[in-house]
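Team,

Forwarding the record for the chain on the shared tracking sheet. I've put the sequence and predicted structure together so nobody has to dig through attachments.
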Amino acid sequence: MPRSLLARVQGAVGRAREVTDHPVLTQVARVGLVAYGAMHLLIGWLAVRLAWGDRDVDADQTGALRTVADGPGGPGLLWVIGLGLLALALWQAGEVLRWLAGLFDPAHRGRALLVVARCLAKATVYAVLGGTALLFGAGQEYQADERMRAVTDDVLGIPWGGVLVGAVAAGVLAVGGYSLVRGCTGGFMKDIDLPAAPDRWEPLIETLGRVGYVAKGIAFGLVGVLLWRAATSADVSTATGLHGALAAIGGVTAGPWLLTAVAAGFAAFGVYALARARYPDRDPSS
């Protein structure tokens, strides 16, 4: 890259980092982290209700947002949640700026690409949840599993649609596997500002994070498996989101107890996310 162009890129990155590192954005992003944690607590509660026979609940992100919408001050609270999650997405995406220089260094390019992809994936999740919360706040609701089946049916109807759905299924399986690895290795503790957290709380935060990431890994891994079945069989009835995966767990032998355990894992992740909101560190490789 020519030196003048590199200098302009570095200047633009520096200006962008001033925005993403601004203390106001950091504080608003913490609101997003609180919302993210509360959403998982609600999913855990809805999953428990689903496990023990309440078929009228949607145990997923949209179900959690609908629960908020039906509560006191629901629409206004949804706007706060949505804006907080969008700020969190921007704050997380700002970590990409720390690694851009590594993309131009052959010795560090592989690691930089991995970290950039991970940061962008997190930012995308936060942005989608934030946008969904704003839609719900504006009164535009939808059911996630129905939307998943409709989109899958549309994609399967085009040339190479099965390949595309299979690729998405593989991506979801990768997310589930990544969550399992994070839970087993404790790598998620890099998202906590450990020097700022009291030492006595670190073992509890780590335990909650491990349980939570493993539960999420199991649930999203099952979403990937069901989506893969839809891709290989062209049967969109198997295409489902988080609610469908949790319902599948609840439908096996000893299902209510297994689903209750997974629900407890989602609740544990919610508490971990609240701890991260208290002691945030966006660097996934610090």
